[in-house]
Amino acid sequence: MALRILTAVALFIDAGIHIHLAPGYQAGNPAGIGQGNLFLLESAAAVLAGLYVLLRGSRAAYAVAFVVAMSAFVAVVLYRYVDIPAFGPFPAMYEPVWFFEKSVSAVAEGAGAVLAAVGFVRAGRRTPRRRASAQH
Q1: For residues 94 and 43, what is the distance between their CA atoms, to the nearest angstrom?
Q2: Which DSSP symbol is given to 97?
Q3: Which of 48, 85, 93, 109 could form a disulfide with 73 if both were Cys (CB 3.0 to 4.6 A apart)?
């Protein structure tokens, strides 16, 4: 249960920071999808993944949590170091600085991905003993 809670907390921290930052980023680029709206979508995904892990703790829940946390971590690191131009409705999100909220979010995302990966592996090792003993 501790692993489920820690994974969910990492996702909730990530979501909270993105919700907090979203209005400022949307104001900077109100056209198209906008970075603020992308932040809100990522926040919703993180909250849902965190709740899924808390409620189920299954391999599927940890897999969803891993995908959400890892994709957010990759995005923040990628856009920190690589200047990717706008494409389609997506804005250019290059931001070559680390600041407090961004750093905390990156750490939470990275930790969430690691915790979810551990949870995925551990959930796969659980075998229903009743079914195994019933077969013999």
Answers
A1: 19
A2: -
A3: 109
What the block records as the tokens of 85 is 């131009």
Interacting residues of 56 by C-beta distance below 8 A, sequence separation 6+: none
Both tokens assigned to 95 = 């931001």
Q: What are 116's two structure tokens?
A: 């979810």
Residue type, 53: V
C-alpha dihedral, 91 to 32 to 29 to 104, nearest 10°: -60
Token duo for residue 37: 């709206």
In 30-81, DSSP assigns E strands to none
- Average pLDDT, whole number, for the chain? 88
**Distance, CA of 67 to CA of 83 (rounded, Å):** 23
pLDDT digits (tens, 9 = 90+) for 29-47: 666 688 888 999 999 999 9
**DSSP-assigned beta bridge partners for residue 90:** 87
